[in-house]
Each structure stands twice: as C-alpha cells, then as structure tokens.
Amino acid sequence: MNQSIMESVKHPVKCKLLLEILNCKQTTAKHLSETFSDIPTATLYRYLKKMTADGILKIVNQTQVRGTIEKTYALAIDLKMEMSDILEKNSGEAYMQTFIQYMLGFAEQFQEYCKKDDIDIAKDKSGFSLAPLYLSDEELEDFMRSYLMITEKYKDNSATKDRKLRSIGLIIAPPNLG
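Below the sequence we write its predicted structure tokens.
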C-alpha cells in the first residue's frame, strides 16, 4: 500500500477526512469544516493541501464564490483496490508492511498521549485488550458483522464538547495452527 495512503489512514484527523470524502464521493472544504468543527480551519486546509500534493486527493471542480475559489475534492486513489491488490497477490510482505503501518499509527497516538504531563488514563477511557476466542469461520464472520453494525451506529457522530475523537481498531490475528 502506498506510503502516503498509510500515513493518512494512521493519522486520526486525516483518516476522518479521508473517510468523509470517500463517503461523499466529492466534497468541499466548507462541508468538511462544518462536519468536523473540531478541526481548526487552517489545519483542515493544510491537510487537504498535503493530501492533494501526495496524490491521495484530487480537485475535481473549482467554483468562484465571493472573491475566492471553492475547490471540490475527491479521492485520487481507490482504497478498496489497494487492499484488494494485497489480497489478490497474497503477499505476506505487503500484508506485514500494512500491518506495521497500522500498528505504528496506534503507537504514535499512544506516544503523543503518554508524553503529556496531565494524562488521566482512567478518566480518558484509553486502553487496549486481547480476547483469544475459539471461533469457526462462520462465527468469525458473524462477529465481524456485529462489530461493523456497532461502529456504523456511531460513524456519523460529529464533535461536541462531550465527544472526543477516539481511534478504535480491531485486529484479527491469523489462526494459531500450531
């Protein structure tokens, strides 16, 4: 998977933008700013510029709006195709590289958090767990459907004073056949 794509996927704010653009197919910075009021405008534009320069986003339209140009953004890459390529090639090396990038994204978030002097792990509701389960392929598929239904319920939440951006990941390790 392209390094720039992985950088965006592992970065919580860029990932939010990426998913919203994927969901909308095409959108403007104004829409993104209204959707994610917790992202400062300068930061939003900086990320959009970087993601466009990295070839992740493309500008599909520009409209004159009261003395300024409003750009409409779309994905310049096919995220599903990127992952499909890894699956099709069944490349252990590419799969491992993608997994390491995924883990590094979480590690960076934890590192930034842990560097702060005023953390409160219990109050901040941070954590991680491991749940080894014996599951048939059908039970695993049922588990994944349930997980997706849970996350789907919350995906359109917008930032509020009570809502904080949280990254929740799920890893399904290959089966232990030993």
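The longest helix spans residues 92-115.
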